[in-house]
């Protein structure tokens, strides 16, 4: 009888502990789940497909993808050196190297980078393979 009482008490205690933990987690998650997009924020749909120009107004690449590391944007994957998809290769650049702006007058996004086509062609190549296969 004593053994059944101890087991029943242990089971009841674990349910109470689990319920309290779930309640705490649910409360914490609710506060952290929703954010408000700010007028200065950029959406991934604004970036993907955006041509990148250098300071001489030459198109040096196109933003093809984003690299997210631990919840933070850590890289932009650029398609460089191709024509109509032939001969293109991909490189990853730090987001801070690309200046993305929105023109209220033109209602358009633009991206510039202080680089050359040759510098991007010589950069380490990123390949869509393994876990990043498309």
Automatic annotation (TrEMBL):
Signal peptide bounds: 1-23
UniProt KW keywords: Signal
Coiled-coil zones: none
Domain PRC-barrel: 42-119
Protein name: PRC-barrel domain-containing protein
């Amino acid at each position: 009888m004593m053994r059944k009482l101890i087991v029943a008490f242990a089971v009841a205690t674990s349910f109470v502990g689990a319920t309290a933990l779930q309640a705490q987690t649910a409360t914490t998650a609710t506060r952290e789940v929703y954010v408000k997009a700010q007028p200065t924020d950029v959406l991934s749909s604004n970036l993907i497909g955006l041509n990148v120009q250098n300071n001489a107004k030459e198109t040096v690449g196109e933003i093809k993808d984003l690299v997210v590391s631990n919840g933070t944007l850590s890289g932009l994957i650029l398609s460089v050196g191709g024509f109509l998809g032939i001969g293109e290769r991909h490189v990853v650049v730090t987001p801070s190297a690309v200046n993305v702006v929105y023109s209220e007058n033109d209602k358009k996004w633009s991206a510039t980078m202080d680089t050359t086509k040759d510098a991007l062609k010589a950069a380490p190549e990123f390949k869509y393979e393994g876990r990043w296969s498309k």
